[in-house]
Amino acid sequence: MSKKHDELAKLVGFDFFRLSTTEPHPRTRIRLLALGHLQSGKSKTEVVNMFQITFPTLRKWLLWFIEDKIQGLKEGQRSGRNKKLPLEKEEEFRQQVEALQEMRGGGRVRGQDIQILLKEKFSADYALKSVYDVLKRCGLSWISSRSKHPNSDPVLQEEFKKNSKKK
């Protein structure tokens, strides 16, 4: 048996078309469909033209499947750009923000305050919108909670709540 038939024989037992209907990721879905057409008897040339890919790409998908089955076709984590605030410094950042909130005593820490903190202590120059993204990533979305006036008296507020009844 030729090498080509050995590779195609390893596709037997999988319903690629059905798998593609339940796959949420579009790139993986295309890979499944391409292998499904190979399995159904279409030539590699037909599949390459159908999906507008190159022969090496189709070969790579086929080898990924042979090595790791369906998991090999799934999209991996992409590296992307390095973050201005590295993951190693996120815990320190979280502590700094919490300390800033404690130091306030009343009122709330604003995005501009955190933007300054990031720039001065972590050398990370973020736009204001991105500051809120960093806060969310660090689990600090509470930062936009309702403010408390520094001169407020919680005892008087509770007393007021008890004495003012809704009609």
Provide the fold topology:
Elements: H1 3-9, H2 16-22, H3 26-39, H4 44-51, H5 55-73, H6 90-104, H7 111-122, H8 128-137, H9 154-163
Helix pairs in contact: 2-3, 3-4, 3-5
Uncertain runs: none
Amino-to-carboxy terminus distance? 89 Å
> What is the β-strand count?
0
Biggest sheet record: none
Describe what this molecule looks like in 3D.
With 167 residues, the chain is mainly alpha-helical. It folds into 2 domains: 3-73, no CATH class; 87-144. 61% of the residues lie in helices and 0% in strands. The protein has 9 helices and no strands. It has helices at residues 3-9, 16-22, 26-39, 44-51, 55-73, 90-104, 111-122, 128-137, 154-163.
What can be said about this structure in brief?
This protein has 167 residues and is mostly helical.
Name some characteristics of this structure:
2 domains, 9 helices, 0% strand, elongated
